[in-house]
Every structure is written in structure tokens, then in C-alpha cells.
Design a protein that fits this description.
Layout: E1 2-3, H1 38-54, H2 56-67, H3 71-91, E2 98-100, E3 108-115, E4 119-122, H4 130-142, E5 146-149, H5 155-161, E6 178-179, E7 184-188, H6 194-206, E8 216-222, H7 223-240, H8 259-274, E9 278-281, E10 296-299, H9 306-309, E11 316-322, H10 325-333, E12 337-338, E13 340-344, H11 348-357, E14 362-365, E15 380-381, E16 384-385, E17 398-405
Helix pairs in contact: 1-3, 1-4, 2-3, 2-5, 3-4, 6-7
EC number: 1.2.1.24
Family: Belongs to the aldehyde dehydrogenase family.
Protein name: Succinate-semialdehyde dehydrogenase, mitochondrial
Length: about 400
Amino acid sequence: MRVGTAGPQCTSHMEPEQGWNFGGAKDIKTSAIKTNTISERSSLLRKWYNLMIQNKDDLAKIITAECGKPLKEAQGEILYSAQFLEWFSEEARRIYGDIIYTAAKEKRALVLKQPVGVATVITPWNFPSAMITRKVGAALAAGCTVVVKPAEDTPFSALALAEILLRHAANSVKRVSMELGGLAPFIVFDSANVDQAVAGALASKFRNSGQTCICSNRFLVQRGIHDSFVKNFAEAMKKNLRVGNGFEEGTTQGPLINEKAIEKVEKHVSDAVSKGATIVTGGKRHQLGKNFFEPTLLSNVTRDMLCSQEETFGPLAPVIKFDTEEEAIVIANAADVGLAGYFYSQDPAQIWRVAEQLEVGMVGVNEGLMSSVECPFGGVKQSGLGREGSKYGIDEYLELKYVCYGGL
């Protein structure tokens, strides 16, 4: 998809509109980047937002049909996706530069913000709508032309948002913003409220069947609270999680994206069990077969197991017991990635210490869900470069130009 050009070129045998009704969608055949004024860019983004809201139910059904995400979650993603367009339609009007007063009376220093040019966006399958609008909304607001390559597993969700044309960048130095996943720790300290921690763990781990880059991947639970947390977590999983068809009412856990995803979860479970871990609940493919896997909780997990070292990207919650705050920090920061981290504590001093020491780009304190349009999304270390969303997200698509104006 190149936003700002003529129609799509699609080699698939299925037309993206087939079976769906997108009222007014052709109106978004954007000359978006052919316009240069802020008000025009803002207006077009707002128009795209309105079209998404008008067609939210059909857009959600495509997501569920493509990746199995429960329909309720898919509907939430569409609203979340649209909000990025609304947000950046407003941020387009607030791209300000600076005037810097220097020591020389006859000079003024100006800093201008200008679009970087063509932006190439490569998006994942687990949020096939939101991962496009979060990037494209910012790029268009800044005044960039955008080329989007959607994930091969979910092309029609992307095709439904706009007209798609696959392009590759030229061989030259290109500015890069990357969100590359993580290995999120979820720490529960002795001072935590167990019920709150369990609720947060459910929300953080099992959204989209564990297939999000900020899903908790390692649960670190302090010895004094460990047994009660594991017991309550297992009970909550059995009570609240229902595996099934994403279109069926009440389903909270749809299928994983493909066979390789299932095999990876199985590999992590079998590796952990072979090294001494205990299956508390779940542990195998669901009776529905195909790409369904039981929500699984493991205890007696150690740092040498694959599930402690690799991002599982599935419904597996491994619990590691620890003794001290210092030990938890060491375990959490041992990974070479640092996208998100979570911890539960009622100790104010501990909250400040841990929040500052966790080597991640986003921290959830007594909170299992943290993504929002208004806040910066991104990580440190090998989890990527730059930030998306918020007022900072537009900076990735802007160049700073310093102008020294003399002779005044």
C-alpha cells in the first residue's frame, strides 16, 4: 500500500471487499500526501477515522476471520486503531519548531521540523489494524508518503483499511523505527495485593491468546506470596478463560495464528517439564484441535528453561520463585530485550526503586494493561528503536533542521 497513489495491485484470488460492506471506503483513495497544508492532512486523517468508525463491525469480523482473535477483542482493536487516526489528525496541527536566542545579538537560531520523506511500514499479524494506523497516522500527519507491507497471515485486514501496493525501499541510508517484541517480566512482591495481581496477570498474559509483544512472558513471584498466587491464578484461569471460535459469544481464547506457533508453545512446555517444571493447569493442545492450545500455568520454573529465555507468544504462564527484590531485578533485566515490564507492590518506596531499575521502555505498576493512544509505546535494548503513539510518535517521521539567521 502506498498512501497517496492510485488503486491497489493485488495478486490474490479473493477481493478484499468480498462478503463485507465498506460504505464510503472508496472516498479514502487518498491524495493525502499530495496535499501539503496541515489542515488538509488533518482533515484527511479525520475522514479516515470516520470511515473506520462507520465500518467498525465489518473490519472487526475480518480480523477474527484472519487470525482467530475473539470478536470482542477485534472490535476493541478497531476502536483502538481508529483512535490513532483521530489523535494524529489533531497532532498534525501541533508540529512546532523553536526559536533559540543565542549570545549574539544579531543572530537568531531557528529549529524547523520537516517530514523525513517516504516511510516504509512493515506490520505484524497480531494487531493487523492497530499496527498500521499507529504508524501511518503519525507519518501522514507529519507529511510523509507511506508504503505499507502487511503481514502475510493477515493481508485483508490491511487491504480493508486502505489501498495496498507493495514497495521496497531504495539502497540508501534510511531512518528506522522498530518495535521488535520483548520478554516481559511480571513481578509479584510479597507486599502485593494477590487478587489484584491475579487479575492483572490474566489481562496481561492471555489477551489475544498470549500473542502480543507486551504479554507477560515470565512471572516472578516472591517466596512469601508464591503459593497463594499460583493457586489463585490457576483458579482464575479455569474460571475466566474459555477456548473457542472467535465468533462465538463468550470466547476469550481463540486459536493461535498457525501450526508453528502451536509447536513453539509445545516445545517450551516439554522443555520446562523435562527440566523439572510442574504443570499446574493446561499443558497440551486443546480438544478443539488444529491451532488451539490450552491456557497453561507452570510452576517450579527456572532461568535455564526456554520459556524463561525466549518469547513464547502463546497462552503459557511460567512462574519463577524468587527471594529478594535484588534477585527479581537481576532476573528481569537478564534478557537482551526490554519492551514492557509489570510488577505488583503496595510499598511506595519499592515501587519507585523497581520502576526506575527495570530495563524496559514501558512499566505497568499494579496494572496489567498499559497501551493507550496518548502514551508512548516502545522499548530499549534489542526491543527496538523509537516510540509510537502519543505526542512523541510523530517525531519518528520528522527531521530537525537548524537555521542560523544572521545579519539582524
